[in-house]
Amino acid sequence: MDYSYFKTEVAKRRRPMTTRELTKMAYSAPKSTVSLAEGMPNEETFPFTEISVKLYDGTSFTLDENELGAALQYVPTQGYPPLLQALREFQRRAHAPPLWESRDIVVVSGSQDGLSKTLEAIIGTGDPILVPDPLYPGVEVVVTPHKAEIIGIPQDDDGPIPKVIRDILRERMISGEKMPKIMYINATATNPTGIIIPLERRKEIYRIACEYNFLILDDDPYHFMHFDKEEPKSFLSLDTEGRVIRLDSFSKVISSGIRVGFMTAAAPLVASIELHLQSSHLHAPALSQVILYKLMKIWGYEGMMEHFIRLRHFYKERRDVISALARKHLNGLAEFNVPKGGFFLWIKIPGVNNSWKIMQRGVKEGVIMAPGAAFMTDPSKPCNTIRASFSKASYEDMNLAMERLAELIRAEQAENYIENLDT
Ligand SMILES: Cc1ncc(COP(=O)(O)O)c(C=O)c1O
User: Fold this and answer.
1) S-S: 177 plus which of 149, 172, 187, 316, CB 3.0-4.6 Å?
2) 385 lines ligand 1 (CB under 6 A)
């Protein structure tokens, strides 16, 4: 595939920074090499002499001398090499991606960092991008300043509707309009709708991507937080042409503050993102990377999976509780689908035009949820949805929140009724 077709002129003009390349060389050079090349501070001057971590199962680990040195120091932009190796092995096992030898991984500071760098490498001024509507708002804030044309694809209970994607692309092609070079997707336990795109729908979207030559950016931070029996088959595992850019994040499954995620994509795309990282934050936090490497090494693949299964039980129970409470309090007032993963309940309120108004009232009445407009491709349009998170609130608070939401909806409906009588 010709990856230069997908890159912006800015991305094409990026050049490697020599000192960063030297850091990479220093890491892989034989021990006997004397290096006076890098501009690193001397770790002996740092105040930290030991870093130990206690885990929830009662075990603990301490970084050894080399690990501590790496954790406190600059590391290669692509990532702390032992972590990169562990991630490569993990990805191979988790997704068995076709064309593995032609792919690479780069460590980023969470999915948001990965998606913004990717989109900035691909979306030039005024370029079109395909997105599901509604979607995670972290995309809009990246592409709007580039005056991107956001093409929202309506969704049903299985995600973006393939026929609509096809119709839009066919029409654009016939009328000679600019064709999108990328589609953003959040395939598993989608934020905000909580759906999982089923395998057949994934395959169909992938087929369209091949037909119309666009990349798929699968931002999949909830991949291991689904409530299905089977692991969803990722877009990466279907990617026979090298057009999927997969973003994983440790934010939801290990820690959000650790700020580490990783991108798996065709090597030329990874190289382009690496150059962007060189020109911005140099590399994702080394301390976080070393701690993650230790954890992955100690737990192994099976240990990681066991942890993910524990997470799924934890959030599934919460999902069941909030769904039962929503059924109890919002019966006849609102509609929702039981989320298939993640931690959001997407609530539709028929008969209400603007959920912002409900939430403004809610602030005074002691309940806050996210108004649906925040997730729409056009946030200025009023909409009747609300996103409620079930990840952290106590069950008592969830109950109170649903009770208060019901009161707010009744008050809004009463006000609408009076307004309609007046007009
Ligand atoms: C779909 C999606 N993508 C990206 C992010 C950002 O995650 P990270 O902490 O990995 O940057 C979030 C966080 O809520 C999200 O829901």
Assistant:
1) 172
2) no
This prediction's pTM: 0.95
Domain boundary among 301, 336, 358: 301
Q: Is the dihedral of CA 336, 337, 338, 340 positive or negative?
A: negative
Q: Tens digit of pLDDT for each residue in 145-162? A: 999 999 999 999 999 999
Helix (H, G, I), strand (E, B) or coil at 193: coil
Kindly give the number of the ligand 1 atom that is closest to the alpha carbon of 109. Answer: 11
Nearest CA to ligand 1 atom 2: 136
Same domain, 169 and 312: no
pLDDT band for position 217 (50/70/90)? Answer: very high
Range of the domain at 82: 4-301
Amino acid occupying residue 62: T
Amino acid sitting at position 156: D
CATH number of 402's domain:
3.90.1150.10
Range 201-205 contact pairs with CB under 8 angstroms and sequence separation of 24 or more: 201/158, 201/159, 201/160, 201/162, 202/233, 202/235, 202/238, 203/238, 204/162, 205/160, 205/162, 205/165, 205/235
- CA triplet 4, 184, 98: central angle to 5 degrees? 65
Whether residue 251 is found in the same domain as residue 348: no
